Amino acid sequence: MTDVRTTDPGIELLERLLERSERNPDRSRPATAAPEYDRLSTAQQVSRFHDLMAAAERFGAVEVLWGKRDRSHLVERIRVRDPELLARHLGRPTAPATAQRLREDLLPVATAGEPWIVGLLDEMTARWARGESAYRLTAAQADSANEFFTLLASISRQEARGLDARTFSQKATNDTKAFERQASRLAAVLGVRIGQPGAAADVVWAHIGLERYSHPVHLRGPVAVQGASSRLIDGRAKPFASIHPEMLSQLSVLERPTAVLTIENYASFNRQVREIDDGSLVVYTGGFPAAGIIELLAKVLTAVPADVPFLHWGDVDAGGVRIFRYLEENLPRGPRPHLMTKDLAKQAGQPAVADPSLASIARSDSAVRELADWLAFGSDVRHLEQEALDPVTPSHGIGLAKSNA
Q1: Are 356 and 321 in a shared domain?
Q2: Both 303 and 396 in a single domain?
Q3: For 135-149, what is each residue's pLDDT tens digit?
Q4: Which range marks the domain in which residue 44 is found?
Q5: Do 147 and 241 belong to one domain?
Q6: Is 263 within 8 Å of 248 (Cβ atoms)?
Q7: 243 DSSP 8-state letter
């Protein structure tokens, strides 16, 4: 379809006036624009421009303001009189009408998800009604918007959990590539939803349980995977063992561990399992824990006595605090911080800028709420990468945490 706005300056001006009116419907003064006579190089073009403006004025869409005295033969400005009539004169529906029609088409898809999906649709409809795009979707992209909301609704129903991206995409939309097309806007919306606007995509996918392919869980401690007639994996193997999430139904706890310790970073995990042998169950989370890690920890924490300490060791920074909070929110019981203290960060950390986005954790019941408050609002904030510390037994880490409280 040819875009007439690129071929006719008069139509282009009227379209621009309509877009201005729709973008700010509550404006106190109607949108106006001055003609660009330098684009009208012939008398015929000037005459056509004047005819177009006169026709729009007769239709009741605009008011034509002519110049005075020696410029009385030229149009000074065009002022919008009625945006709806202007849209009709241009042969298209208004932006609010288009937005409302799209909302009606998408509402059954949105209502199939959690209530916040409908709230998002209302937010996007308001932007479409002003002629704007929303999450890089315009009201003209109905098919893409339908795909986007279909995936979001499915994610809100927890249907992405434990699946790789293409399998989930096929199940949700009957198209293996739909998720890839929508990935960036899904990450943007979900990042805001989980309280981490601008978060990396991998962080967001971990929150919804999506895994491109399930990775083995690295651990060291008294657990095993039992086969029909033999032990397939012994978690006490040195330096550590790896258990695929599909084996979790065969996982058992061999004996009471002295503690359950999760570790964010790979280097620190390797040092812990190689240098400390105290009967703890040590699990590598790899940053934000994937669905398989959460499933394994949930099974272990349900199986071991409640008085077995559960701790997490991560970086003292915004990411480390968010990972800690994620564990608290997704497991039968939350961890206590291991070597994650304000005092240790002051001793061995690096100067950093406060991050107010941690305010929600600082105001929560989290075991790291005081640390989050310092990182969010402190004047002397320092970040501490866990690799800067030597590993210690979890029992010693508990002692450090209490002494620094």
Answers
A1: yes
A2: yes
A3: 999 988 999 999 999
A4: 4-90
A5: no
A6: no
A7: E
Tell me the per-residue pLDDT of 170-186, one tens digit each, with 9 for 90 and over.
999 999 899 999 999 99
Tokens at residue 295, please?
A: 């499933």
**Is the domain of 285 the same as that of 168?**
no
111 alpha carbon, distance to own chain's centre: 20
Buried b (16+ CB within 10 A) or exposed e, 294-319: bbbbebbbeebeeebbbbbbbbbbbb
Roughly what angle, to the nearest 10 degrees, separates helices 9-23 and 83-90?
140
Residues 256 and 359 in one domain: yes
Closest CA to 328 of 301, 366, 295: 366
Q: Please, are residues 389 and 339 in contact by the beta-carbon 8 Å criterion?
A: yes
- Picking from 309, 364, 359, the residue whose alpha carbon sits closest to that of residue 338 is 309
Instruction: Report which secondary-structure segment, H or E, holds 170.
Output: helix 165-173
pLDDT digits (tens, 9 = 90+) for 341-388: 999 999 999 999 999 989 989 999 999 999 999 999 999 999 999 999
Question: What is the CATH classification number for the domain harbouring 19?
Answer: 1.10.10
Q: Is the pLDDT of residue 276 over 90?
A: yes
Taking the C-alpha atoms of residue 12 and residue 6, their distance in angstroms, rounded to an integer, is 7
Residues 228 and 361 in one domain: yes
User: Rounded to a whole number, what is the largest CA-CA distance in the chain?
Assistant: 104
Q: What sign does the dihedral 264-268-274-279 (CA atoms) show? A: negative
In 3D, which of 75, 156, 68, 62 has the Cα closest to residue 109?
156
- CATH number (domain holding residue 254): 3.40.1360.10
Tell me what pLDDT residue 94 has.
83
Exposure string of 38-54, with b = 16+ CB inside 10 Å and e = fewer, is: eebeeeeebeebbebbe
Neighbouring C-beta atoms of residue 146, cutoff 10 Å: 15
Q: Among 83-87, 321-325, 394-398, whose mean pLDDT is lowest?
A: 394-398
Separation in Å, CA 239 to CA 218, 270, 271, 275 = 10, 8, 10, 10
